[in-house]
Amino acid sequence: MNRCGEDPFSPALRLIRSICRSAVFLLVATIFLLATCIPLPPWIGLGSIGAAIAAVSSRDVPQRGADGVVNAVPDGDTVVLSDGRLIRLAGIEAPQRGRRPPGGADAQPFAAEAQAVLDTTVRGRHVVPWFDRERTDRWGRVVADLQLDDGSWLADVILAAGAARVVPTAESRSGAARARLRAMIAVEAAARAARRGLWAVDFYQVRSPDNPGPPGSFQLIEGRVTDIATRRGQWSLRLGIGDAGVVVGLTASVRRALRAVGRDAAALLGQRVRLRGWVVDRGVPTIEIAVPEQIEVVE
């Protein structure tokens, strides 16, 4: 203590307290501005203030694009707006006319029907695009979730009709995009259970590990995890027995994402799961997992 009975460090402490008070004031002001000035899409509730701050800090808030009116529907998952913008619907894959299935047909089964469903649903209607952190996919196409003029999501309407399947991608890693994926998977499951649309077609049925479909095709595959292997930090799950099976690649980032939602990759051993993804040939049929939503435990 000094001769006046004061702590010699008190000026420094007072300065620190003043800085802290200023920081708190700025934080509160920032929260207020975020809550009142930034438009959020319907699937993102403000919830807690902390969750909102975390979402903004991670660029996890979908952004609204310019409204438009649908002028054309070139296929089952793409629309053209009246101002010329071409938008690929995020998170879904409809049967395609230009993609030849085995057997030499000119289009995948149900391609014309899927295009008709989308055309009937949306042509001439006002839509609002919502973008995740990535506005384009790996092929440079503009990708967005489209909200209809009645507040519903176009992808959900298409999925409910059985005119498309949910296709997670590497661009769907943000929390908001994954929340939408889970909602869409639930809509798809209801259509599949009712055998609506493409779910009544054998070509799109959920496959077994010993019949995973040709390389380059998107598939849903259901089976039991019979083995887990690790090599140089990479994990792989095997569904099926021996050579008649499917390998599932899990990167470190996917394993972390699984743990973040309370799922341990090692705990999948012995469980029956449903995979969704693109089949690639790596000596054995393989599906690479980009987001946890590609693996569903079914029992």
Structure description:
- The N and C termini lie far apart (69 Å).
- Helices cover 28% and strands 27% of the residues.
- The protein is globular and about 55 Å long.
- It has 3 domains: 48 residues; 137 residues, OB fold (Dihydrolipoamide Acetyltransferase, E2P) (Beta Barrel), CATH 2.40.50.90; 92 residues, OB fold (Dihydrolipoamide Acetyltransferase, E2P) (Beta Barrel), CATH 2.40.50.
- It is of the alpha+beta class and 299 residues long.
- A 5-stranded mixed barrel has the order 2-3-4-7-6.
- The chain is built from 6 helices and 14 strands.
- Helix 4 runs parallel beside helix 5.
Run of helices and strands:
HHEEEEEHEEHEHEEEHEEE
Computed over alpha carbons, the radius of gyration is 24 Å
Residue runs with pLDDT of under 50 for 5 or more positions: 1-9, 46-58
- Spatial order of the strands forming the largest sheet: 2-3-4-7-6
Oligomeric state: single chain
Which CATH class of the largest domain?
A: Mainly Beta
Question: Domains counted in the coordinates: how many?
Answer: 3
Beta strand count:
14
Question: How helix-rich are the residues, as a percent range?
Answer: 25-40%
Reported CATH architecture of the largest domain: Beta Barrel
- Largest sheet, strands/sense/barrel: 5 strands, mixed, barrel
**Kindly, what is the distance between the CA atoms of the first and last residues, rounded to a whole number of angstroms?**
69 Å
Would you tell me the structural class of the helices and strands? alpha+beta
